[in-house]
Structures are given as C-alpha cells and as structure tokens.
Model the fold of this input.
Amino acid sequence: MNPKMVRPIVQAMADAKGKKVIDIEGLKAVCNEQNTNVDLIRKNCNNNENRISTNEEKQKSILSRREELEKARKENAICQRLYNLVRGTTGNGKITLEQYIQAAGFDGIIAAANRRLLPMSDGQYELYRQEDSLGKKAIISLTLKCWIIIQGIEDQWEIFRVEKVSRPH
Done:
C-alpha cells in the first residue's frame, strides 16, 4: 500500500477508537417514521380545526335563530293547551270544549250581574260560579252561588244548578 494512504487510514482509526458505529439507514428509517407520525398529527389537527370552525358557524346560526325558536315554542305551547282543551284532557280533569265555552259565558253573565248587584246591595251580595272537585276529576258545573256578607259573617246560598247542559237535536 502506498504510505501516503496508510497514514490517513491509521489516523482515522485512531480518531474512531472508542466511538460507536452509526447506522445511517436505521436513522433514516426512524426519521421517515417520525415524519409520517408528524404528517398524521398535522392531518388530525387540521381536521379538528375544521370541525371546530364548522361547529362555531353552526352555533352562531343556532344562536341567531334562538328568538325565532322561543317564539315557535310559545306558539306550540298555546296550540298544545288548546288541543288538550278540545280533546277534553286539561290535566286537572276532563271538560269538553262545549263545557268550557258555557262556563266562560256563564262567568261573563255573573260578572255583568255583579257589576249591578254589588252597588245595589252595598257590597253585601256577590254571585260566583262554584267549581267542584271530586277526587281527581274536576266537574265544571253551572252552579250559581251567592255570598252574603252581613256584619262580618259570610254565608252562601245556592241559587240554581245546571248539572248537564245538552244541545237540542
């Protein structure tokens, strides 16, 4: 061998003494695996950011329609109560729409009568409609009662009672 070539080789061996051999191919494989993991993490991060952005837009849309939704809920509640009333299932007993209308009309008549009766009797007499409850089923009857207030003593009379009102055929 050429002595000029041997000297650098000997010097390189002396410099390499106690050092580890580096597996460049193994390190490249580790770097490639880490790059693949980084790409996967970035992809997942981008997907999550896109989902967050989409959800924030949807949230803004929902919040902008909140007032409209509340209005619709109130209208639905009114319609549901009317539907239950027409069906005869008010929750505190069953009455028909016809009974409800008759009772409301009767209340109007009683209010008009009280506007005249109270001043005429110096506040001693007041008419009212009695609402009976038997068990869990409320019976809406057209029973007219009169409160009599004389010298601080309250008493009541039953003036008349209509138990069942039916339509003529």
